[in-house]
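FYI - complex with flavin-adenine dinucleotide, inputs then prediction.
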Amino acid sequence: MKDIECDILVVGAGPAGSSAAWASAKEDLDVVIIEKKEMPTKDACAETLSKAFLEYLPFKIPDRFLKWELNGLKFYYNDFIITRDEDIWWKSHPLNRNEFDPFVLDLAINEGATFSPLTEFIDLRYDNNFMVDKIIAQNTENNESIRIKPKILIAADGVESNVLKSIGKLKKQQTSIGYIKSYEFHDLSLDDFQYGHVFFGEFADGAYGYIFPKSETSANIGIATLSNKNIDAKFDDFLKIIKNQIHGSKMVIDRSGEAPVKNPSEKISYGNIMFVGDTANQNLKPFVEGVIPGIICGSLAGKSAAICMNCISKIESTYKKLIKEKMGEFFIESNEIGNALVTAYENKAKERFFLELGIFSDKLNYKDLKKLKKLKEKEAESYIKKKLSSDS
Ligand SMILES: Cc1cc2nc3c(=O)[nH]c(=O)nc-3n(C[C@H](O)[C@H](O)[C@H](O)COP(=O)(O)OP(=O)(O)OC[C@H]3O[C@@H](n4cnc5c(N)ncnc54)[C@H](O)[C@@H]3O)c2cc1C
């Protein structure tokens, strides 16, 4: 068995893990990052970055990733079509994650982090205070076992985190995960390739169907929903709605996956273990946009780890403080929005598709959601319809 010692071990080379490795390596720490898949991992993603969040990033994204821009978003439910394109908040960049994820990983490697590909986290040993002393990983090609002794472990292994499972802290709740069936399509006849298109209805109960163009003739097309029951049939129902645009096209890459809707664990750190990215529910609802938030919080995790190398008991408070300073109320409002969607879905509220349309198009804001909680179903529906028809 191979033995490795390091200051920081990062599990998972998605955007959040690579960013955490980058930030801690920048602080001269000895960092190892392990990834079970081959890079690029062909991640599940609609590959869209909100333009407004770019300025929050801890490093600059090269222009080659941002060459093309979507002017705004169009939202559809029954006869309602709402177009939002009035300011930067509605603009976005299609992203090629096959190139982008290795770019972020390279930043970490260039700062001195050691990358171990095809290396899967298997298990760990920890004490009553959740202080990890060693983890066991395995090379997925030759099955060689590796024992790693980190001072701090950063788990960035996605929504169904094995690190969280290993310490018994992965919460199992209904509707805590959004299920997304999504493909990259080529040779499309898109009605409008300069806008993202977002659809509501039974096929995407609790969330949305989407077309996010990547070029004039290619797009990521998918449905997100709060239940994976009959998800294939629901996806087919959605494709029927957009049949004219997909006629003669090819489905080329499966980008289906899962996204956290509620916190996968009570806390964002236990002992010397920290969680980042999807493992810590660091995405922004309602779209569950997680790439930029994962990078921001990943870098804050790396920074917190460096600050707390010799005062492990302060990890949680330091990490939380840095997130609060950088993200302000974003995650609080985001969770409130997520909860409103989940509640409407669970109650099978009649007005839920209008509510979804209102929330996603931002015709209903945080304050409206509070007001809606107090209204009966009929009153709620007419309140939402009035808001949807308003100009602002
Ligand atoms: C279909 C879909 C569409 C989405 N669309 C968008 C979008 O348009 N824009 C956006 O910003 N966000 C989008 N998201 C969310 C976004 O993809 C995630 O929030 C983001 O990838 C989270 O980054 P991460 O680094 O936390 O996790 P991930 O990107 O999931 O990376 C986790 C990594 O850990 C590795 N790993 C897992 N287990 C182990 C293990 N045991 N050992 C070693 N490695 C392991 C995985 O292989 C993976 O590479 C979408 C999500 C889905 C599912």
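The mean pLDDT is 94. Residues 238 and 322 are 41 Å apart (CA to CA).
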